[in-house]
Amino acid sequence: MVNVIGVGNALVDLLIRIPDNKIIEELSLQKGSMQLVDKEFIGTVLNKTSSLPKAEASGGSAANTIHGLAALGVKTGFIGTIGKDTFGEVFTNDLKKSNIEPYLFLSDAETGIAGTLITPDSERTFTTFLGAAGEISQKQIVPQIISDYKIFHIEGYLVFNQGLIAHIAKVAKDCGLIISLDLASFNVVEANLDFLRKLVKEYVDIVFANEEEAKAFTGKEPEEALNEIATMAKIAIVKVGKNGSLIKSNDITYQISPITAKPIDTTGAGDLYAGGFLYGYAKGLSFEKCGKIGSLLAGKVIEQLGAKIPPTAWDEIRKKIAVIESE
Q: Per the CB 3.0–4.6 Å rule, which of 206, 212, 233, 322 could disulfide with 180?
């Protein structure tokens, strides 16, 4: 089985369940979006939610995907930047205990925080203070780190530094890696549309998008968006929530049903879908089986608070994956 390395923002997630949309409106946030904020703003978020329960976990989109792959036994690595602080230690130790090779660079800035506001409908609104996470530099992405891997998974949030993500894609392609890109968030796509379309056409092999991101990327509804993305990348995946997902490659479209789940929090659903799909792809499984495994992981993570599937659930998941593989 081929191995996978990811690159992205090394963040600690603060998961905050809010009773309604009032706080989102008071903060002038767009529900369901991801906004980059400064240290003062994240402080305001924490003050406004000080009486509400919070959960803490290491996170970031690509890191969540890599954690899912590692839990399924794939050899993995992760590249990111952290601060010399307690949150940085939390992030590092989490990678190590999950058997993920850490390629972490230290910064004098504080480790990044993603304040995730979760409404009763399970929708997530992100306020992200990048801190040290935003200090990944081109000189840190070198062939010596990535050349032992076969698949390079990139989170779309890095597109706020267009020079960096272009460099990553070029180095990965020059090393012969398969490049996987998650489009991250519809507002990220809207703000960087021309650049992202050029990046996908020139470098990306696998594109993951949900229906809002796909529409922002193409201006079209899911199936037509899938068709357009498939003209740019070898493999296009559009996730359509409760309707499952669509996969297209070599002019063949696969419709994947979701699993039955009781959603609590959709944080990490797309990240774990990517992890499941890439696991199947790394094993050379059919696209239909890759999609089913992605759907399984996505369905399991939304039954938890946060982007991590608990260790107690993985044995059952591995058994279900074995059944999918044997079909």
A: 206
